[in-house]
Amino acid sequence: MDQDSPKSQIDSLRAQIAEHERLYRIENAPVISDDDFDILVRRLRELEEKYPQFADESSPTRAVGNDLTESFASVAHIAPMKSLDNVFNSAELEDFDLRLHKTLGAEGEFRYCVEPKVDGAGVSAVYERGRLARLLTRGDGAKGDDITRNAFVLRNLPERLSGRNIPELLEIRGEAYMTRAEFARLSELAVSERGGDDGDGGGPAKRKAPYANPRNLAAGTLKLLDRKILEGRNLEVVFYSLGAAEGFELKRQSELAEILRGWGLPSFSWTELGDGPRGAFERICELEEVRADFPYNTDGAVVKLDDCSLHAAAGMTSHAPRWAVAWKYRAERARTRLNAITVQVGRTGAATPVAELEPVFISGSTVSRATLHNAGNIAEKDIRVGDTVVIEKAGEIIPAVLEVVKELRPAGSVPYEFPENCLECGSPLRKYGEKMLYRCPNLSCPSQVRGRIAHFASRGCMDIRGLGASAVDKLVETLGVKDPADIYSLTREDVMKLDNFKDKSADNLVSSIAASKKRELWRLIFGLGILEIGEQFAKDLARKYGSLDALMRAPLEDLESARGLGSSSKKKGGEAGSVRALSIRAFFDDPHNRALIERLRAAGLNFGSEGAAAEAREAESLPLAGKVFAFTGALKSMGRSKAKEIVEGLGARTSASVTRGTDFLVSDGKSDGDKAAKAREYGTRVLSEDEFLKMVEGARPAEGGAGKPAVSESGQMSLGI
Ligand code: IVH
Fold this sequence. Notes:
Elements lengths: L5 H21 L7 H17 L9 H4 L10 E3 L9 E2 L2 H15 L6 E8 L2 E8 L2 E7 L5 E3 L23 E9 L2 H14 L20 H9 L4 H5 L4 E10 L7 H10 L9 E4 H15 L7 E8 L5 H4 L9 E5 L3 E14 L4 E13 L2 E7 L3 H7 L6 E6 L6 E5 L25 E3 L4 E3 L6 H12 L11 H11 L4 H4 L4 H5 L6 H13 L5 H7 L7 H11 L2 H6 L2 H5 L13 H16 L1 H12 L9 H10 L6 E5 L7 H10 L3 E2 L9 E4 L6 H9 L2 E3 L1 H11 L22
The structure holds 2-(butylsulfanyl)adenosine.
2-(butylsulfanyl)adenosine (IVH) binds next to strand 3, strand 8 and strand 11.
């Protein structure tokens, strides 16, 4: 058949889309961006409309519903939806308890409520006058996707609340999950629907697990657009925390589950109290014993300060409450067969051996690949293809091969030999170090070029929408793009030459490339792909130096003094710091990199400004930095805008309403409206005008001096009253 005929184009698109759907939903390993996926679906839809004779009920355009590209509306949460910080051992749990004692200045043991940590997808349900009004995903914590139309898939979510004293407005947080039984049912169904073959001609269906794990399947299901598929799946929800509740105050966390059940909302049947970190630890151990009996997967325990009246004073970080912490269970291990060893060359040229495994369910997900780290590790453990190996996985951590079960080694196996040449470009691999690390030395190796550009464009770096891995492949192959600077000279006409790019998608890509020029400096620093420089360190460098030029000029000693900044505790210390400093210096001293940077400058990218670092440092050291003020009623001594100007000048932010993140409500004492009610609900400190004036007076720098901060070293606000 003619390869360019409409029919063969349609067939090819259907096959591509089905494969990408499978990689995304089942393997949990998408290889193209959502935008690229949408482009494929759009192209298929156009062809199907033009050639209705090739219509097919099983086409992915039908299977995924007609509104696939329509995203869910984004809706603000009433109270921000925070996450949790993790602890992994009892020492870290004790540190958490100690910090809490310090923050609250309390004596005696705290009582903790220990709950299961459900491994699902966070959701927030809003009930207005007892009726379900909205169901949102967690989103970015401030706003979530409005998935109300899919709420019916949560089979135990009531549309109406029952019982007594139901708050007028209730925002309640929980976890949507798929029971293990439902996961097994759907997996079996998927296998049998494939008719015993996995469709790739590679053998029996059982070799490939149809879905990655219950959590991903639950999260994917919540966002499905096709009602038919939704109807065939069952999820459940369990609630564990309050967002907003009008006219209701929770006294103890341990009372919440029963209260919720009283309103007809599903909650935990297992929660236990423990005194102090030791008591909490005992409960955590008990939970570990029984968690296998729960119908859902758990990946840990959540330890919450039971006395809710202390929550507001304990406060929040930008990411998590300080009054709760997640205890993550130890990694789980499993045995499986090593089918093959492949080698992946990344953007830095590092050639990493990967174990291709007989799929095995472990720690809540199906694992079919694991890292083998390096050739030294393979040699040391004598890992051979055909071996039965022990793999370990903890939460999101990449699974790794721990050891070989030598007794089960098949006869005739041979030691593994690392390839001598890069499988992508054929260059002889360079071997170095005791661990026998291999690196492809060819900077122009297509694997490295693709990897560097994809990293630069990725969401975590310059966030160029529409430039996912497959679009990058096309740019490199078809247009000869060689480095990130080349992206900025692409024209609409260039992009139109790529498969699957049409008027609209080409316009979108060109405008998202242009938009990326304004990204924050840290994104550019991270995107350059300097060895050893991750996101956090890039942020620290941007803050310290303020501009790319200042960073490029920085002498080695100055860079070394930045060591430890943002580094994980493990990496803290001189060695990691100087390795990073050397890496930065080497990067900027390289004439090729300098040329690349000049081309990025010429393209108009944001390189930061010389004054930015000083400004940032100054703002952070201001006495009210990080505090949030709201105002209600009229102040006698000044207008509200003056009051705002004063607190902002001292580093604080102001907000129009009172949320959980508000530290102070300045009140004239007469107004008792919504803000005062919210302040009571969240335990926000209410300041009279006098108290406010004393606070800002105390925080203001004294004439000619540094002034006496109103915030103590522990970060506690001292009111000076
Ligand atoms: S409390 C402000 N309790 O774990 C309160 N979260 O890794 C924050 N989770 O984002 C959440 N079980 O989606 C809480 N018993 C539980 C939980 C729980 C699971 C999820 C939640 C959170 C994530 C953090």
